[in-house]
Design a protein that fits this description.
By secondary structure, the protein is an alpha/beta fold. The chain has one domain (8-196, 231-256, 267-275): NAD(P)-binding Rossmann-like Domain (Rossmann fold), CATH 3.40.50.720. It has ten helices and nine strands. Strands 3-2-1-4-5-6-9 form a seven-stranded parallel beta sheet, sandwiched between helices. A two-stranded parallel sheet has the order 7-8. Helix 1 packs across helix 8 (232-244). 45% of the residues are buried. Residues 12-13, 15-19, 38-40, 43, 63-66, 91-94, 115, 142, 144-145, 189, 191-192, 194-196, 199, 228 line the site of nicotinamide-adenine-dinucleotide (NAD). Nicotinamide-adenine-dinucleotide binds next to helix 1 and helix 6.
């Protein structure tokens, strides 16, 4: 029987991609209830419609994870609604702008860190007391392959995703030391077939009121056609298998595993290899 059976689970960024697939998989594995949220309401409503009537109670609410007060109110609301929260999947995230550090703008860093890092911190701080109170909690924070490999033009994203790993492992060490009943997992996906690269390109060009450059289009095409390969359903299955086995660290996809090995074998040379690879792939 699945360890997820009967659990009350919360998934952020569930309107598309990995979050949507996680919500579907949680329902399929017998979760009692799934609270889904996203900033994009039409997507959220569509996913809620897909999930309702499949045996789990679905709670759907708009939530911007970068908004601390909103996350605090949301956590209170979800906990009051269900009486207990067992699992939190801090999944919501965006890909950053793709400028080099010489050309970077603060707005990109502020947005990406607000969502990808502060969103995870907000969710964790607001839900952790409820996970502890459940007596059988699990915190799952989504980092990335870019939580251990830095790449050119991904400064804001790598900054956030490396930090998510450090933050999550801190929480894990505290839960272990203080014998709190919360398991903690950091997830490092490799390339997963979602709209993340397309969304990032659209956001960046809309913000600046211009068309994408040829280089930006080439980079998004490379990601969509060559790098983001694993179906989101497969990614969700790997994550939930890891959660059921209480894995502290889940690498999603063969690319995430290969890069992890490379970085551990050649830590000092990894940036050079990332530079060579990027030059070869993009140009
Ligand atoms: N797709 C990949 O290859 C990949 C690789 C590594 C890590 N990840 C991580 O996986 C997670 C999910 O990404 P995805 O690939 O499914 O992308 P996606 O764009 O399909 O889904 C992300 C969801 O988060 C939502 N979101 C964005 N900003 C938000 C905010 N402020 N508050 C609440 N929701 C917000 C979006 O509306 C979207 O529905 C992200 O944290 C991403 O960084 C993805």
């Amino acid at each position: 029987m699945s360890a997820l059976r009967g659990k009350v689970c919360v998934v952020t960024g569930a309107g598309s991609g990995i979050g949507r697939a996680l919500a579907h998989a949680l329902v399929a594995r017998g979760a009692r209830a799934v609270a889904i949220s996203d900033v994009v309401e039409p997507n959220l409503e569509r996913v809620a419609g897909e999930l309702r009537g499949r045996g789990a109670e679905i709670h759907a609410a708009r939530l911007d994870v970068a908004d601390r007060a909103a996350v605090a109110a949301y956590a209170r609301d979800v906990a009051a609604h269900f009486g207990v929260v067992h699992q939190l999947y801090n999944n919501a995230g965006v890909a950053g702008g793709s400028r080099t550090t010489l050309d970077a703008d603060y707005e990109d860093y502020e947005r990406v860190l607000a969502i990808n890092l502060w969103g995870v911190v907000h969710g964790t701080l607001e839900f952790l007391p409820h996970l502890v109170a459940s007596g059988d909690g699990h915190l799952i924070n989504v980092s990335s392959l870019n939580g251990y490999l830095a790449q050119p033009q991904l400064g804001s994203y790598c900054t956030a995703k490396f930090a998510v790993r450090g933050f999550t492992e801190t929480v894990r060490s505290e839960m272990l030391r203080d014998r709190k009943p919360v398991r903690v997992t950091v997830v490092h996906p490799g390339g997963v077939r979602t709209d993340i690269a397309t969304n990032a390109l659209r956001h960046g060009t809309e913000r600046e009121g211009r068309e994408p450059t040829a280089a930006e289009q080439a980079r998004a095409k490379l990601y969509n056609e060559k790098l983001l390969k694993l179906p989101a359903d497969d990614a969700a299955r790997i994550v939930l298998d890891g959660v059921e086995k209480n894995r502290p660290r889940v690498r999603v996809g063969s690319d995430a595993k290969a890069v992890d090995l490379l970085v551990r074998l050649l830590p000092a040379q990894a940036p050079r290899l990332a530079a060579l690879l990027d030059r070869r792939l993009v140009r």
